[in-house]
Write a structure and sequence with these properties.
There is one protein chain. This protein is an alpha+beta fold and 416 residues long. It has 19 helices and 8 strands. Helix 1 (2-19) crosses helix 2. The N and C termini lie far apart (85 Å). The structure holds heme C (9 copies). Residues 30, 33-34, 37, 52-54, 56, 61, 66, 69, 71, 73-75, 96-97, 100-101, 103, 135, 140-141 line the site of one heme C.
Amino acid sequence: MKFARQLRLAVAALAALAAFPAAAALSEDDQGCLSCHAQEGLKKNLGKGESLPLHVQGDEFAKSVHGELGCAACHSDVEAKKHPGAGKKISSAREYGVAKVEVCRLCHEDKAKLFDGSIHASTLKQGNLWAPVCTDCHGSHAVRAKAAQEPMNGISCRKCHDDIFDAYAGSMHGLARSKAGQVRAPICVDCHRAHDVSPAATGTRLRDACLGCHAGAVAAHEKWLPNTRTHLEVVSCPACHAPASQKRVDLRLYDPATKQRMSDQGGQSLDAKALWDLLRGVNREGAPAKATLIGRLEVRTGAEAHQLTDKTKAIKDCVTCHKQGADAFQNVTISIIGPDGRPVRYEAQKEVLSNPASVDAVGDFYVIGGTRIKLLDALLALAVLAGVSAPVGHLLLRRLLRSKPRHPGAGSDTAN
Ligand code: HEC
Ligand code: HEC
Ligand code: HEC
Ligand code: HEC
Ligand code: HEC
Ligand code: HEC
Ligand code: HEC
Ligand code: HEC
Ligand code: HEC
C-alpha cells in the first residue's frame, strides 16, 4: 500500500516535472507535494458551491524568491505522512487565504508591522475580507523580487483600485512613467507607500511626498500666488493640478487641545444627534471651545485626485475661486475621522460658507471656534442637520431660528 502510493507519486512527479522544467531545481520533498498539486483542476470542495483551487505552478514557484525555501517553510502544518487525510475544515477560500498570510510574518516581521498600521489592515480588522493582505499584492507561490516588477503592468494596486489606476495612467506622471526608461515619475507606492498605506485625506503625507520630489515648488508658486503657504495648506495640490476636477470644501473638526482631527470614540458612527451636540458645544458663550473647524478645498472623487496635468493647464486664475458663487464652493461637507481611520463626511449646505467669495470674509470662516461667528455656527449646525437627518433637523431648526441672533456678534448666544 505504502509502496504503491510512493510509486504513484514518483510517476506523477515525473509527469508534472516534465511539464515544468524549471521546477527540477526543487527538493525531493517539494516534488512530492507537486506530484499532486501540480495537477491543474485539483481542488477542494468547501460546500455551498465554493471550492479552493489546489493547483500550484511548480516552475513559477521554483523561479520565485522562495523557491529555495521549499513548501515546508510555509506549510509546516502539512504532515506528508498523514496528508491529505480527512482534510481540514475550511469555510471559505478567502478566509483561508487571509489566515494563511500569517506565515509571511515569520520572516518579514518588519513589513508585517508596517502593514498592521495601514488603512488596509484596519479595513480588514473591521471585517472587510476584501482589503488586501500580503498575497493580494505579491501572490503566494510566484513571489518576485521588487526589481522584477514591471513599472506599469506590475502595479498590484490596480486590481482593486482600477478607476484610480486609469486616472493615474492618463496623468502626466503616468504618461511619463510608461515611456521606456522613465522611472523617476511616481507610481502609487511613491506617494502612498506600499505597506503602511494611510487614509488619503488625512495628515500631510501626500503633500510631503509631492514636495519631496518637487523641492522647488513652493518657491515657484511664490512668484505668482500671494499667501502661498496658506494656499498650499488649505487647497489640495490636485484641486489646481487636476483642473477639470469638481471641487468641494471639507470642513474638518479639530480638537483645539490636541490639534488632532476629531474621531468618533467607541467605534460607532457619529450620528446626527451626537454631531449636533458637538457643534452646539463649539461656541457656547463662555464655554471652552470644544472643536475647531478648518476648511480645505479638495477634489470630490478619488479618481479626480489622480488626473494631474502638466503645469501649463493648472488653475492659475484667481477668480476661479475668488468670486461670488464660485463653483469650487458649491459643495460642502463636514468630516470627522471614522473608526477605520478614514474621514466620514456629512453633506452640508453650501450656505454654510456664507460668502467665501470675499477674501475678507473668508479669513475667519476657516477657523470656527472663536466667538465672532455665531451665526455661521448656527447655519452650520442647521446645514449639517438638514443634510444628515431631516426629521431631527426640522424640529431643532425652528427652535434655533427663533433663538439665534441675526448678525455675527450681535445679541447673546442662547444655550440652544
Ligand atoms: C512563502 C510561503 C509559501 C510557500 C514557500 C509555499 N506556499 Fe503554499 N500557500 C502559501 C499561502 C500564503 C497560501 C494561501 C494562498 C491563498 O489562497 O491566498 C498557500 C496556499 C497553498 C495551497 C492551497 C491552495 C491555494 O493556492 O490557496 C496549496 C495546495 C499550497 N499552498 C501548496 C504549496 C506547495 C505544494 C508548495 C511548494 C511547492 C507551497 N505551497 C509553498 C504560502 C506558501
Ligand atoms: C497524494 C496527493 C497529495 C500530496 C502528495 C500532497 N497533497 Fe496537499 N492536498 C491534496 C488533497 C487531495 C488536498 C485536499 C484535501 C481535502 O479535500 O481536504 C490537499 C490539500 C492541501 C492544502 C490545502 C489546505 C488543507 O490542508 O487542506 C495544502 C496547503 C496542501 N495540500 C499542501 C501540501 C504540501 C505542502 C504537500 C507536500 C508536503 C502536499 N500538499 C502533498 C493532495 C496531496
Ligand atoms: C497593498 C499591496 C501590498 C501589500 C498588502 C503588501 N505588500 Fe509588500 N510590497 C508591495 C510593493 C508594491 C512592494 C515594492 C516595494 C516598493 O516599491 O516600495 C513591496 C515590497 C515588499 C518586500 C520587499 C521590500 C524591500 O524593499 O526589501 C517584502 C519583503 C514585502 N513587500 C513583504 C510583504 C509582506 C510580508 C506583506 C504582508 C504583511 C506585504 N508585503 C504586504 C505591496 C504590498
Ligand atoms: C521562511 C521564511 C520566509 C517566509 C515564511 C516568507 N518569506 Fe518572503 N522571503 C524570504 C527570503 C529568505 C527571501 C529572499 C530575501 C532576499 O532576497 O532579500 C524572501 C523574499 C521575499 C520578497 C522579495 C523581496 C525583495 O527583495 O524584493 C517578497 C516580496 C516576499 N519575500 C514576500 C513574502 C510573502 C508575501 C510571504 C508570505 C506568503 C513570505 N514572503 C514568506 C523568506 C521568507
Ligand atoms: C485586494 C484589494 C486591494 C488592493 C490590491 C489594494 N487595495 Fe487599497 N484599499 C482596498 C480597500 C478594500 C480599501 C478600504 C477603503 C475602500 O473600501 O475603498 C483600500 C483603501 C486604500 C486607501 C485609502 C482610501 C481612502 O479613502 O483614504 C489607499 C490610499 C489605498 N487603498 C491605496 C492602495 C495602494 C497604493 C495599493 C497598492 C500598493 C492598494 N491600495 C492595493 C483594497 C485594495
Ligand atoms: C517620485 C517623485 C515624484 C513625486 C512623489 C511627485 N512627482 Fe510630480 N513629477 C515628477 C517627475 C519626474 C515629473 C516630470 C514628468 C515628465 O517628465 O513629464 C513630474 C511632473 C510634475 C508636474 C508637471 C511639471 C511641469 O513642468 O509641467 C506637476 C505639476 C507635478 N509633477 C505635481 C506633483 C504633485 C501635485 C504631486 C503630489 C500629489 C507630485 N507631483 C508627486 C516626480 C514626482
Ligand atoms: C492655487 C492653485 C495651485 C495649487 C494649490 C498648487 N499649484 Fe502647483 N502650480 C499651479 C500653477 C498655475 C502652476 C504653473 C505656474 C506657471 O509657471 O505659470 C503650478 C506649477 C507647479 C509646478 C511646476 C513648478 C515649476 O518649477 O515650474 C509644480 C511641481 C507644482 N506646481 C506642484 C504643486 C504641488 C506639489 C502642490 C501642492 C503642495 C501645488 N502645486 C499646489 C497652481 C497651483
Ligand atoms: C503623485 C502622487 C500620487 C500617486 C502616484 C498616486 N496617488 Fe493616490 N492619491 C494621491 C492624492 C494627492 C490623493 C488625494 C488625497 C486627498 O484627498 O487630498 C490620493 C487619493 C487616493 C485614494 C483615495 C481615494 C478616495 O476615494 O478618497 C486611493 C484609494 C488612491 N489614491 C490610490 C492610488 C493608487 C492605486 C495609485 C496608483 C494607480 C495612486 N493612488 C497613485 C496621490 C497619489
Ligand atoms: C483653487 C482655488 C483658489 C485659487 C485659484 C486662488 N485662491 Fe486664494 N484662496 C483660496 C482659498 C480656499 C483661500 C482660503 C484662505 C483662508 O481664509 O483660510 C484663499 C485665500 C486667499 C487669500 C487670503 C489669505 C489669508 O491668509 O487670509 C488671498 C489674499 C488670496 N487667496 C489671493 C489669491 C490670488 C491673488 C489668487 C490668484 C493669483 C488666488 N488667491 C488663487 C482659494 C484659491
